[in-house]
Amino acid sequence: MKNENRRRSFIKGLGLGSLFLGTAQYGLVAQEKEKKAKPHYGMIFDQTKCVGCSDCEIACQKVNKVPKGQHRLYVEDQTDLKDILNRKFMRISCQQCSDSPCTHVCPTNACHRDSITDIVTMHVDDCIGCKYCIVACPYDVRFINDETKAAENCDFCKHTNLAQGKEPACVEACKYDALVFGDFNDKNSYMNKILDVKDSVRLKPNFGTKPSLRYIPLIKAGV
Ligand code: SF4
Ligand code: SF4
Ligand code: SF4
Questions:
Q1: Residue 11 contacts residue 183 (beta carbons within 8 Å)
Q2: How many CB atoms are located within 10 Å of the residue 152 CB?
Q3: Residue 180 has pLDDT above 70, yes or no
C-alpha cells in the first residue's frame, strides 16, 4: 500500500498523472470494445419447416465423427398419435447457454467457453470423465463419447465446419431451411432478420441459463 502511495506521488510529481489515467482509461475502453466485439453465436430451429428427415443428425455424426448410436443432436418426433396428420418434430441438442452450468462445474476446464468464439466446447484431452458437466446440464444433452472417453456437446461444429469457414454441418445439410445459424451481435445477420419478424421461444428459460437456441414453434391453425 505504501509503495502504491509512493508510486502515485512519483507520477504526480512528474505531472504524468493525467497521462497515466488517460492511458488506463483508454485501456478500459479498448477492453470494453473487445468485449462487445465478441460474437454470440446462436441457431434457429424452425419447427414449422422441419419434416423430420434426420439429414441434420446424419451430417453431424459424419462431420464430427460421433460414434454410432450416440448423438450431439437428434430430432425427436413429438407428433400427437391422436393427430398424426400434424407431424411435429423437435431438435434436441446443446443450447449453448450464455450462463452455462456445465462449464462452471468442470474441475479441469476441459468443458469451457472458447475465448474467441465464446462457444461452449471441449478440450478433449483434459477430460477425466467425472460426468459433473453431464449432471449439471439441465437440458440433458451431454454424453461421454464411447471412443474418446471424453464428454461432448454440440459446439456448432467449432472444431470442424466452423474452423473451415463453413456453417455447422446440420445447417448445411437441411434442405428445408429449418435451421439458421448466425451471430446475435451482428444486427445484419440473417438470423436476426428472421427473429425480427417471427415469434420464437427458448426452451425452459426458467432454468436461467440463457440458451442461445431459438425455436419457431408450430402453432396449429385455429388454436
Ligand atoms: S445446454 Fe447443457 S451442455 Fe449446453 S451449454 Fe447449456 S448446460 Fe452446457
Ligand atoms: S466429464 Fe470431463 S468435461 Fe465433464 S466435468 Fe468431468 S472433466 Fe469436465
Ligand atoms: S435436416 Fe432439417 S428438416 Fe431434416 S430433421 Fe433436420 S432440421 Fe428437420
A1: no
A2: 25
A3: yes
Q: What is the pLDDT of residues 186-199, one digit of tens each?
A: 999 999 999 999 99
- As a whole number of angstroms, the distance between CA 74 and CA 52 comes to 10
- Write the DSSP string, 44-57: EEETTT-----HHH
User: For helices 2-13 and 17-37, what crossing angle results, to 10°?
Assistant: 110
Q: What is the pLDDT of residue 37?
A: 72
What one-character-per-residue DSSP string does 11-43 give? HHHTT-HHHHHHHHHHHHHHHHHHHHHS--EEE
Entry pTM:
0.83
Amino acid at 105: V
The rounded Å distance from CA 82 to ligand 1 centre is: 33
How many residues are recorded in the chain?
223
Quickly list H helices, the chain. 2-13, 17-37, 55-63, 101-105, 132-136, 169-173, 190-197
Pocket test for ligand 2, best of 131, 142, 144, 145 (most atoms within 8 A of CB): 131
CA of 71 to the centre of ligand 3 (A): 15
Contact 177, 168 (CB under 8 A): no
The tens digit of pLDDT for each residue in 101-129 reads 999 999 999 999 999 999 999 999 999 99
